[in-house]
């Protein structure tokens, strides 16, 4: 059976800053998945920045987007998406939509993306940006991402863009057998990018790189 392809997006040619980001920040640091590199080259990162900050869109680091949240460093987005091993037929859940940038990268790779955002203002902004750019295979949901999004489960992959104290029970329950969770696990000061693959009723967990994310909020988020 042939794999289904995700809906085609229409982009302008990658500008020099985007090409340089892919070369210097991703390829030189070891990102090897060609599909991930193409997705990062396709998404206009500047569109997910506040208008007054677009000059910083391709800087090598995280950047504030309002409401105490950030858009993640390009390398960290690429590394986590690479670890998720997204295929064109996959349905993916993103916890912590933020600006919508990572959801756009995932939408380049997956059949369906559900991005949950607790802060309504950010979620609605992400929704508008993704719609304007033609990402019809992304649904932004306003809600508590620590509870997942049961309505569209099961998911082939779950990616978490905020520091979680542990793998939330709902994520395990909503993950398809063989699926992967990629999440920064730790306290509010330092986390480890963690991969958990579901095998039957168990999660096989491996640790990747150290990282620092804003804290996950919600029922299974960091203590207030």
Summarize the structure.
Mean pLDDT is 94; it is low at 1-7.
**Helix/strand order, N-terminal first:** HHEEHEHEHEEHEEE
**First-last Cα distance:** 49 Å
Low-confidence stretches: 1-7
Approximate strand percentage = 25-35%
Q: How many distinct domains? A: 1
What is the strand arrangement across the widest sheet? 5-4-3-6-7-8-9
**Average pLDDT, all residues:** 94
Proportion in helices? 25-40%
* Shape annotation: globular
Number of helices: 6
Per DSSP E runs of 2 or more residues, the count of β-strands stands at 9
Radius of gyration: 16 Å
Helix and strand composition category? alpha/beta
Biggest β-sheet description = 7 strands, mixed
CATH topology: Rossmann fold
* CATH class annotation: Alpha Beta
CATH architecture: 3-Layer(aba) Sandwich
């Amino acid at each position: 059976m042939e794999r289904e392809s995700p809906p085609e997006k229409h982009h302008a040619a990658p500008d020099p800053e985007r090409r340089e980001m892919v070369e210097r920040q991703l390829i030189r640091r070891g990102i090897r998945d060609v599909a991930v590199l193409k997705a990062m080259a396709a998404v206009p990162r500047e569109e997910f920045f506040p208008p007054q900050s677009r000059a910083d869109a391709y800087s090598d680091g995280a950047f504030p987007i309002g409401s105490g949240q950030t858009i993640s460093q390009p390398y960290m987005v690429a590394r986590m998406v690479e670890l998720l091993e997204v295929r064109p037929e996959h349905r993916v859940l993103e916890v912590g939509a933020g600006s919508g940038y990572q959801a756009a990268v995932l939408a380049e790779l997956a059949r369906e993306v559900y991005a949950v955002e607790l802060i309504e203002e950010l979620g609605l902004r992400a929704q508008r940006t993704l719609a304007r750019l033609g990402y019809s295979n992304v649904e932004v949901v306003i809600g508590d991402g620590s509870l997942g999004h049961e309505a569209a489960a099961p998911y082939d992959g779950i990616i978490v863009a905020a520091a979680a104290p542990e793998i939330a029970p709902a994520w395990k329950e909503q993950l398809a057998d063989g699926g992967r969770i990629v999440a920064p696990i730790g306290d509010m000061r330092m986390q480890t990018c963690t991969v958990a693959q579901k095998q039957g009723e168990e999660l096989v967990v491996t640790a990747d790189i150290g990282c620092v994310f804003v804290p996950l909020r919600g029922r299974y988020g960091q203590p207030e």
